[in-house]
Amino acid sequence: MRGWWARAFGNRGERRAARYLRGLGYTIIARQHTNRYGEVDLIARDGDCLVFVEVKTRKSTAAGHPAEAVDRTKQGQLTRVALAYLKQHGLLNARSRFDVIAIIWPEAGRTPELQHFQNAFPPVGTGQMFS
Questions:
Q1: Kindly report the CA angle at 85 between 46 and 56, in degrees rounded to 5?
Q2: Is residue 70 a contact partner of residue 58, using CB atoms and an 8 Å limit?
Q3: pTM of the model
Q4: In whole angstroms, what is the distance from residue 123 CA to residue 98 CA?
Q5: Distance from CA of residue 2 to its chain's centroid?
């Protein structure tokens, strides 16, 4: 997948993930939050915990499970984005975590398979408040 179609497919997955989280009682705070370190797909509140959610949507597992795309490099980037968000909003003392939602959506019209990995990885990096 390339270009606009890939973005549209990813956006569709993010909308589905947001609906799923709202169904669990989460409050969606932001979608596609971007700062100088990159982007996080969703920021949500689960009770008193701020959740940074990476959503990976694929048509199949032919190239591996979607969650496998959230490798150590991506985890580091998400950690930096989250830390900047927390600093910007004066939330450095807030509880927070990283979740991954993997969606396999084989065809339009078919029900997607969604897996939610809560607390999917610890913050990555050195010399930060997380180390």
A1: 65
A2: no
A3: 0.88
A4: 8
A5: 20
Whats the size of the chain, residue-wise? 131
Extents of the domains making up the chain: 3-117
What are the C-alpha distances in Å from 14 to residues 28, 43, 89, 126, 129?
A: 11, 11, 23, 30, 29
Class for domain 3-117, per CATH?
Answer: alpha beta
| 3 state SS for the chain | CCHHHHHHHHHHHHHHHHHHHHHCCCEEEEEEEEECCEEEEEEEEECCEEEEEEEEEECCCCCCCHHHHCCHHHHHHHHHHHHHHHHHCCCCCCEEEEEEEEEECCCCCCCCEEEEECCCCCCCCCCCCCC
Residue 39's alpha-carbon distances to 8, 52, 109, 111, in angstroms, are 16, 10, 28, 27
What's the token pair of residue 25?
A: 């009682």
* Residue in 12, 27, 22 with CA at minimum distance from that of residue 104: 12
pLDDT tens profile 99-125 = 999 998 887 667 889 999 999 999 987
